[in-house]
Amino acid sequence: MLASISPFGERARASRWWLTTTAYVLSSALGGTLVGLLSALLGAAVPERWRWSPAGVGLAAALLVLGLLLDARVGGSRLPSWRRQVDEAWIGRYRGWVVGAGFGAQLGVGVVTIVTSSTTYAVLVLAALGGTPWVGALLGLVFGLVRALPLVGMVGVHDREALWAVLRRVELGAPAAEVVARVGLLAGASALAWTALGGVA
Q1: Is the pLDDT of residue 119 over 80?
Q2: Where do the structural domains in the chain lie, given as residue ranges?
Q3: I need a labelling partner for 99 at 20 to 30 A (CA). Which of 1, 36, 57, 105 fits?
């Protein structure tokens, strides 16, 4: 998808890249906000004294650790996920802004397409643990915006050479991004475990 929606590709389809990308970013942010809000509302259905009990916080920490193990495919395990991705047949069939809005919303929600990292599930777990609608919405908003960043990075891609250069940079940066995600999950799991154990107490 990243290779398909670029100034170079959109120009060939007589579409405006900035409009497609704006629709993509806004709908990804909205999708993330909605799923974060929904997770927080579901979490709020559980009494706070249970959510923030040592058992509740410990369960959240365990889920983050489980996500790390699944990401690493320990014992041949795999992260549970849908087997579907956004429908690239939309490109060329619909107007650019429709494609941008449709793709952005699906990727912003995160769990309706292929889930490649447990960080997606971690956002839902943390939003539910908080149980506060505005915090959940904010977590989801940040998630949706971060998901949209790679497409924004296509700005300035006006020929094949520039497109391949960006794709090479993305490929080269993927291992570092994976490490950052795993460190973040580990830090979050450690903080939750510390809280569940009562800190220094």
Answers
A1: yes
A2: 7-193
A3: 36
pLDDT score for 92: 76
Report angle CA 176, 32, 98 to the nearest 5 degrees: 100
Q: Which of these, 38, 65, 51, 20, lies nearest to 143 by C-alpha position?
A: 38
Q: What is the Cα–Cα distance from 146 to 131, expressed in whole angstroms?
A: 22
Task: Give, as one character, the DSSP assignment of residue 107.
Answer: H
Q: Is 182 exposed, middle or buried (0-12, 13-18, 19+ CB in 10 A)?
A: middle
C-alpha 201/C-alpha 197 separation (Å) is: 8
For the record, the structure tokens of 121 come out as 């599930």
In sequence order, which residues have a C-beta less than 8 Å from that of residue 89 and are 6 or more positions away? none
| 59 CB-near residues (< 8 Å, 6+ apart) | none
Mean local confidence (pLDDT), 128-132? 94
For residue 64, what are the CA distances in angstroms to 34, 174, 182?
22, 21, 10
Of 124, 142, 157, the C-alpha closest to 10 is 157
Tell me the C-alpha distance between 195 and 177, whole Å. 27
- Prediction pTM value: 0.87
CB 123 within 8 A of CB 143: yes
- Whole-number Å distance between alpha carbons of 181 and 2: 20
pLDDT at 114 over 70: yes
In terms of residues, how long is the chain? 201
